[in-house]
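Appendix C reproduces, verbatim, an entry submitted by the partner laboratory led by Prof. M.T., so that reviewers can inspect both the input and the predicted structure.
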Amino acid sequence: MEGFPVVREFVVHWGDMDALGHVNNTRHLRWMETVRVDLFQMIELRTAHSQAHGPILANLSVDYHKPIHYPDTVTVGTKVAKLGNSSFKLENVVYDGAGDLCATGECTIVLYDFKNQCSVQLSQELRAAIDEIHLSAAELV
């Protein structure tokens, strides 16, 4: 998936569907959460030696474009779309097995100091790690 450094496939399970016969909207949020955490691990955002600071989810929005049904597989991707001083915005996409866009989403992640209960600036090391995974994704295209 071009431009998305974190991509993962998920199998749609029968239990993912709601009473209307399509995948429940909350499942999309779970898929997006999983690729978000994958990205956090890639950039070492939350590691054992950084317990004082970590990411918090400031907001989340999803636009649903097409229903997904069982049985199917979906491909979900995430990328950093914008860097701020103490936050960054992620963009997410969800495609079904036929390659159709089913959902898009975005969220804002804030780097947070849990002890002092305030946001903290993104370090140069973190910015470099984000740049690195996006450059690596661009090289795969």
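DSSP finds two helices and six strands in the chain. Additional entries are available on request from the coordinating office.
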